[in-house]
Amino acid sequence: MENVLRPVIVVGGSVVLTLLIGWSVDRLLRRADDRHSETSLWGLLRRGRVPFQLVLFAALLRGSYGQVRLLAEHRTGIGRTLTLILIGAAAWLVVSIATAVVETSYSRYANAHRDPARIRRVRTQVTLIQRVVTAVVGVVAAAAMLLTFPAMRAAGASLLASAGILGIVAGVAAQSTLANLFAGLQIAFGDMVRLGDTVVVDGEWGTVEEITLTFLTVRTWDERRITMPVSYFTSKPFENWSRGTPQMTGIVFLHLDHSAPVEAMRGKLRDILRECPAWDGRDYGLAVTDSTPNTMQVRALVTAKDADDIWTVRVTVREQLIRWLTEQHPYALPRVNTSEAALLPGRTSRTGRPDPDAAASRPHARHTHEPPRTGPGRG
What is the tens place of the pLDDT at every residue in 44-101? Predict the structure, then answer.
């Protein structure tokens, strides 16, 4: 009878004690969350109740399993399994606590500051810090699990003896990985690029969606994702439209006929911008910047508060100016001249018009009348 009751008491007692302690801690965290609503720390810590209870149960069962006297021939394997569960649950709990602390710090900073650029910078930094903590805890937990096996402990001495050679080999083999790792830390704390920044990389315009220790993801305007190594952003130039103030100046180019009404276009541009909500009212302008034998290049300059609005202003100005020119001044649109060129006076062409070649061939012709010269020896 004792052999039956002892396992039930030990296992059942561990389960009941785990649930009781877990419920008590969760209730305390809930009260603290209700009392301190200005911070989300206590609510975030409640997410770790599952790993916390798992740690408690594994620790209680690991410490009391020797009293069960059940499956004695498998005692070593069961004890090692409980130890592995305890290590894994402890790592899970540490990561949960670190995540709660990091997210709480970011929330406090975001509520205390209104500068979007600084908020994105801190968000990038805390995200990478969280990833570093997770990676370190995972490596330490995996190493601790391996060291629970006697064979791995025996091999540790030989591995330490050759640590220098292994370090050199690993450094050469993982050179690109280490470069990306340090580049990720440089991006996080060097404020080069942040989550949510609008960038132009290799001719692609998009928004930084994810930054890890080794790669960076840019979401383009057409919903594509471009994944690039973070070392790219530390070794090659790229455009960051969110750096500094988000205000931007946009340009719209139009190729028109030389007869286009430039002054009327300036007035129409002003009217278009006044009705465009995306225009921030800072500046605008229209000027002829270049010309060719057939067309001239007109540049419209507009401003907006950020990259999204500048795109809206540019397409609005381009569409409405072209529509207005088509309806009101169709002669201003580019066209190909198919009529004959104007001829110089003094010559008629085959169509009866003056021929410029005849006048050009007699630049110093006499105006007096001379009789015709005929016969050999004359002239």
Answer: 777 778 888 888 888 877 776 666 655 556 667 777 788 888 888 888 888 888 888 8
Here the tokens at position 141 are: 């937990």
Between 25 and 277, the higher pLDDT residue: 277
The burial of 212, by beta-carbon neighbours within 10 Å (0-12 exposed, 13-18 middle, 19 or more buried), is given as middle
Neighbouring-strand partners of residue 200: 205, 239
d(CA 172, CA 265): 63
Could you tell me which of 74, 77, 61, 69 has the C-alpha nearest to residue 5?
A: 69
Closest by CA to 56, choosing from 14, 11, 103, is: 14
* pTM confidence score: 0.45
Residue type for position 233: F
The tokens of 46 are what? 């409640």
Are 51 and 71 spatial neighbours (Cβ–Cβ below 8 Å)?
A: no
For 56, phi then psi, to 5°, come to -60, -45
Buried (b) or exposed (e) across 132-147, using 16+ Cβ within 10 A? bbeeebeeebeebbee
- Rounded distance between C-alpha atoms, residue 363 and residue 357, angstroms: 10
